Amino acid sequence: MSIQSFEEKSVPMTVDRVLDDLGLGRFQWKLLAICGLTWAADAMEVLLMGFALPGISAAFELPKGSPAATMLLTATFAGMLFGAWFWGYLADRVGRRSVFLTTVALGVVFGLAGALAPTLTWLLVARFLTGFAIGGTLPVDYSMMAEFVPTAWRGRFLVYLESFWAVGTVVVAALAWWVSTAFAPAEGWRWLLGLAALPGLVGLIARIGIPDSPRSLLARGEEAQARAALQKVAQANGGTLPAAPLAHPEQPPRVSPAQLFRGVLARRTPLLMVTWFGLSLGYYGIFSWLPSFLRAQGLDLGAVYRSTLLLALAQVPGYLLAAYLVEKIGRRVTLVGFLTLGAVGAYLFLLAHDANTVLLTSALLSFALLGAWGSLYAYTPELFPTPLRTTGMGLVSGVARLASVVSPSIGAMLLTGNLTLALTVFAVCFALAALAAWGIGVETRGQALAETAE
């Protein structure tokens, strides 16, 4: 054996170096498809209550604008709030894969339980538990994707994953449209909730063959398992895993969530929380009530569903542009640009006085805000170190869910004549989110993921 080959086998290699050498291949595309399917299923679960509410109101005799109707819209978000924090923390402690499987399984079970709800209380509890389960898929899925993709492709793959939200939006809008024509409203909502839970079952089966994150395994001192996970990547991509040992990141004796507010994270974490809160409050405040708002503008139920379908399609170019720009000009600038466009779009929506203009300005908002979401999902996991990545993702996404709980109450002003006040609140939220994102002051494009927590 030559001295050079001996050195190549003895010098430790980082996971980033191994993944970059193995390159982009079948493993990453398969992981994207599997996580994307579940992310689309999550979008369906989050958005379907806006479509199911008229039928639920008919079945349980809820008056228009009743507190119970608002509680139904917020129950899923409230569950996601606690789920994001709980599952995100757990995934950093016990590994990504177990949470990766558990949350999807529970989401299917509780989603079907909601479809069979005999009482309104049962339905509220089922929707909360569904949110609690799917709240864990966000921090885990994005951490898994970030930790398996080569550096040069990481940003756009994270945006690609977020773009499956548009797929779920299109599917749930089309499904709601079909259900509205096939069943009476008091019966159709059960079919809608039941059918929306089934894609998660397919996603669960597909996830079984995915290994745990090698970065997470190394952070917990499990080098043999980390090598086995990278070996699966090498086999799927047609490459060869280097014989060199893996570089062990030196971790402090104990990593705790408090470290999200220390060192370099002391600035990043609060600003990310503001960004996630502002974008979520504005997005869900507008779009959770948009079907009801369009109905109030004189559109029949079928036209409302068709319009929502068109708005979902308007998200696609927003995602595609974000996927291009995060690698071309960077995550931070792209995110701030889309948030600024969202703030402008909110005021253009305010100036709309007929159904067609409302639809056009809504499409602009859909384009801008989903481009912002795509950029934010690409940016955030890269700002946290591996031992705190899912905990950090869980924290900021939980803050977003907190905004989601509040947003339907503010969004209800769209239907009560306080349109100017509601849209001013949302525009200010987008502007503050843009300022906070800019204030982070860090660009992660082309950078290796941080492996150690300070």
From TrEMBL:
InterPro entries: MFS_dom, MFS_sugar_transport-like, MFS_trans_sf, Sugar_transporter_CS. The chain crosses the membrane at residues 31-56, 68-87, 99-118, 124-145, 157-179, 191-210, 271-291, 303-326, 333-352, 358-380, 392-415, 421-440. Residues 31-445 form the Major facilitator superfamily (MFS) profile domain. CDD domains: MFS_SV2_like. It is a multi-pass membrane protein. The keyword Cytoplasm does not apply. This is Sugar transporter, putative. It is found in: Membrane. It holds the Pfam family Sugar_tr. Keywords: Membrane, Sugar transport, Transmembrane, Transmembrane helix, Transport. GO terms for molecular function: transmembrane transporter activity. GO terms for cellular component: membrane.
